[in-house]
Amino acid sequence: MTTLDQANEIGRRERFLAVVSTLRADGTIQSSLVNAGMLDHPLTGEPVVGFVTHGPAKLRNLRARPQTTVTFRSGWEWASVEGRAELVGPDDPYPGFDAERLRVLLRSVFTAAGGTHDDWDGFDRAMAGERRAAVLVAPTRVYGNS
């Protein structure tokens, strides 16, 4: 059985690059590449997979159909995390999250996915200007070939 820790380790080896797959309205799959990492849910403390996006296709799909799969790979080793996505962003209000708490969450998700920054104020301005959202995926199934 593959664990979240194993998925995170596989992600770490490839700079936390992951393929995110969402379901379109017509039943086909939309996939894209993101940086994703593990962190604790800011309210429940439970482990989640997080990534930051402003991708209109991903957000549209996740708003309507929040089930998603995030797959990490390194060489021939891979791990997938399936779960329900929660969106937290300027266009996706979340109970208990104001602009300041969103700013901190976006930084936390970014660093969990291996990101670093020399200008956090500039990062914050870019995230707000691009209306980026944090996507938190609560795992319901983790599997792979580990």
Structural commentary:
- The protein is α+β, with helices and mostly antiparallel strands and 146 residues long.
- It has a single domain (4-144), classed as Pnp Oxidase, Chain A (Roll).
- Helices cover 29% and strands 40% of the residues.
- The protein has 4 helices and 6 strands.
- The chain has helices at 4-13, 56-64, 99-112, 120-129, and strands at 17-23, 29-40, 47-53, 67-74, 77-88, 133-144.
- It has a 6-stranded antiparallel barrel.
- The termini are close together.
- The model has no long low-confidence stretch (mean pLDDT 96).
The CATH homologous superfamily is called: Electron Transport, Fmn-binding Protein, Chain A
Just give the CATH class.
Answer: Mainly Beta
Stretches where pLDDT is under 50 for at least 5 consecutive residues are none
Q: Shape from CA axes?
A: globular
Q: How many individual β-strands?
A: 6
Q: Radius of gyration, rounded?
A: 14 Å
- The helix count comes to 4
Percent range of helical residues:
25-40%
* N-to-C series of helices and strands: HEEEHEEHHE
Quick structural summary:
It contains 4 helices and 6 strands.
